[in-house]
## 1
Amino acid sequence: MVLAGSRLGGDPFARANGVELKPLIPVAGEAMVRRPLRALRAAAGIARVLVLTQEVAAISAALEADDRVSVERSGPTIAATIQGLLEDPATVFPVLVTTADHALLTPAMVAEFLVKATGADLAIGVVERRPLMARLPETKRTWIRFRGGAYSGANLFGFGSREALRAVALWRGVEQDRKKGWRMLFAFGPALLLGAGLRLRTIDQSLGAIGRRLGLNLRCIVMSDPLAAVDVDKPSDLALVEAILSGTA
């Protein structure tokens, strides 16, 4: 599933780049949403791709024709959209979720994530700070620190079973704070927040504790390619991604 939603009331970032929707911002000469979609279509193990957006006609018009790809209307928020998908009796598991702004996604990243996520109820892709900063020392990301390292999200989520709905329901409760790592941790309990704050737990230990509370097999997937953490949220990200694609960064 590719999340290709847009901000209510318009997106200044999109408009500054000559379009109305963020997924349609040109990246290296083509609509941004086409790039992760191409990676998914080329990856082994992907049977079908569902693009979810509020603007079905506009996104559909930007995509190449492909019988394996469909575009449907999304829910009001990311968590609500994912919850609707997981609750649908027609959904076949496992489900991989990524975003339309994951412009550097590659088939190799997809393949690595799928293999490492096998058997988990919920798998979350992350990148550790050191390899990313070695590759892109000037980049700015949101980091959550644990014992042994700091991590940024890779916009890759694997839902291995319908049981993952327990985690999604909690996500909906803190969705507006998804960029604030401490608020997310606090939702799972003060002990977990304290363990992360004092760096007493590794990221695997922290997810293990969350999983036990929810009765789920939660797994952290540390991606080997640090570029998995690079998405396009702002003008500097767009410039960076285009530089990487052109080989100048």
Note: Residues 181-194 have pLDDT under 50 and may be disordered.
## 2
Amino acid sequence: MSKERGFFVAITFTLALAAAPASHAQSYLCEGHVDLDDATMACYKYGPEVPPPVVAPAPKPDPLHLRLLRYAQVAVRHRMSGLASYYSTSLDGTLTSTGEIFRNRKLTAAHLTLPLGTWVELKARATGRVIRVRINDRGPFVKKFAIDLSQAAAHALGVDIAEDRHVEMRIIALPGEDPLPDFVPQLPTEELAATLR
């Protein structure tokens, strides 16, 4: 009899639960039901508001770096290494392509294609010496030479007496600009190649 009675109680309990209203069934053995307003429930429906990501402003490009890139782009279009020749004494006092009077004692040079007024840094392969000259004339007109130096520039580099007259050139200022400071390194080759693509 006790089995039948237990079975009867279980069925009655199940039917009572099924017949109870939905709100009553949820609160059975729990605290009373509380209705929350939409503003309170909004954060549970959609999650907390996520602020937009903070985007750091792009760093301003370094003006010196941009200048080096510009010089490298100009240099690619010109012959920037080769043999150096130097002016004869008889040309002292003649007019240059810029209209100024040529003086052998000044650090100037002639280049066939670089813009007049460009400053270049020259390094002699034989001596390792480095000087800076301003391009103020056109030449040399002999194909084997890349640059024509004043006698003072040739002597400062040591190419007036060296067997190897090969020099490397690097633009350090375009016309109207002040030359770069002495400590500015040359642009890395990989960066130059990426810029020119």
Note: The mean pLDDT is 84.
## 3
Amino acid sequence: MIEGTIPESKREQRLKAARAQLEHAISLMRNLAYFSQIGIDPSNTNPGAVRKTCVIPQVIIESIQYYQEMAASKNISIELLNRWDQYKVIGNPDLLRQVFMNMADNAVKYANSGTRITFESRAQKRTGNLLVEITSVGTPIPIAERTKLFELGFRGSHARQKVASGTGLGLNICKTIIEGVHKGDITLESASNGTTKFIVRFPEYSKD
């Protein structure tokens, strides 16, 4: 395009393709950077052993801001519900940001145009856990693939059909960080109407 060899009629298509490749490269570099940190000390899933108070709404807002523009280009909105509930956990804010960035990236890629992606945190009285639920609407995920999605390198059939590029690293990293660093867990629910919900559980939390 800079050299003027791309016809006007094809410029928008080429720009979208270049943007998609750039977004994929950024996601890949971010995830590989995490793995390089783990490789320094495989027994320590918390690089630098950073332990701080993490304000969940703040971490989520910092994470999803990177994907607002990409979502808007697909007529998708990303919203943080009940943002004034200041839930807090002790952990590594950089790694938690990595988790929610991966979740936002994943949701925007596979959500249907014209839908809404929501992040919502709430206390579960029955278990005493803090839940962060990421909900989107797209293609239903087959039951047989739901647990495999967290395996290193695995990409579901719906992902391969909808987005050509992908590494299969993002959800595995989310699982590693939540389980290894924050002693919680992450699960997936997917309904037949295409509503998919990732649930991140923290066993310990506080609230102002």
Note: The radius of gyration is 18 Å.
## 4
Amino acid sequence: MAYELPPLPYDYNALEPYIDEATMRVHHDGHHGAYVKNVNAALEGTQFANLPIEEVLRRINEVPENIRTAVRNNGGGHANHSMFWRIMKPHGGGAPTGALADAINATFGSFEQFKEQLNDAGNKRFGSGWAWLVMDQSGKLQVISTANQDNPLMDGLYPIMGIDVWEHAYYLKYQNRRGEYLNAWWNVANWDEIARRYEEARGVR
């Protein structure tokens, strides 16, 4: 069954003033829409076409070599953005609570230190990519970054949250000020969804 572009869980302008309406329209309808179209085309007629995109990414090295790059880029883009829309919300921000907060404090020292590490990973990602909070196979949290639309599932890691640092995610509003965008992003973080993904990670590893 072909993948579909998921609707935004809020209006295009709902994340203002931190993420502008024009960016959300181009980012969701244009970029994410293209990833969905292209990964469907690449996988059509293969044994992977009916698998969840996350399973395809976990098995990326089994995907036929002639379509692997297209699936890596566009399937990764579909999975990454499907997560990205959900880990943001209007009137978000603040700090996590409960088990996720405890794990962040235990791993990084404090929430503020965690934010600094994730922002640093995003700022230092040369070119296009993502900054991630992931869980490894042992249950340990890590901050990493990936290039382009690579997803941590490709490396056996579980993505708990990721911030898009492609220029299309911020350039209309922030131009070359990626650091300003990263600082602003935390005002739309949806900690309920991120905590749900943390609990999911604990259950699937």
Note: The chain has a mean pLDDT of 97.
